[in-house]
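User: Here's a chain of 266 residues. Predict its fold as tokens.
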Amino acid sequence: MTGLIEIRNVTHAYVTDTGPLPVLNDLSLSIPEGGFVAVVGPSGCGKSTLTRLIAGLMKPDRGKVWLHGDIVTSPRSTVGMAFQNPVLLEWRSILKNVMLPLEIVPTRLTRREQEDRARKLLALVGLEGFEDKRPSELSGGMRQRASLCRALVHQPEVLILDEPFGALDAFTREDLWMTMHNLKAEEPFTGVMITHDLRESIFLADQVIVLSGRPATAQHVMDIPSAGPRVLDDLYTPEAADRLNVLRRQIEIAQGRAPANAETGE
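Assistant: Prediction complete.
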């Protein structure tokens, strides 16, 4: 095993009334410890299925998923998840929403230490002073910040993000991209993000994986070199434009709108 997450020859289909619906086909990926991978592809190609397999919420029909050298067969406390809908509990304060995983996942932290950790994370994402507010009193972007804190409060090895910023306006989304970079610097984790936003993928990830049309396999892998902390201006460079053009063409190929031997710009 070379990566923290190893996906080897994974095939999976859903059972439907009309028969099996193949989703993933002989998919193999390796994600190094501390890496941040963005997974893109056509709608319905199996991106969310992939995250559920990594999280242990599902088992593949064939193939194996390993995490730290162990085969994933059930949900693991070392995995945190954040989704497009923050799903915060209205009857709990923001602080208590963030602390919720610590009531579920075994921890050696005292109650005071749990609260201190939650407060630290909220301060990191700009929510200091909002700890006692209810979710309905916060904007959509603020609720998503709280959701990220909740996903990280138990210090998971792996953070899975399933289109966490998809429902937000462009300005809020870009602001949260910078928040993600700050969080990863302060709270190291291995990230796997599902997104339909190609700009988001090249800004946040150090590797972008394009899944083919269903049943999906890894059609294209793009490494994003890092030259220090990223800023939004990085998205307006010739290099960024070239990467986006390659990814757009790969999506067209995955959708069947361009031949597989089409010029990619690489």
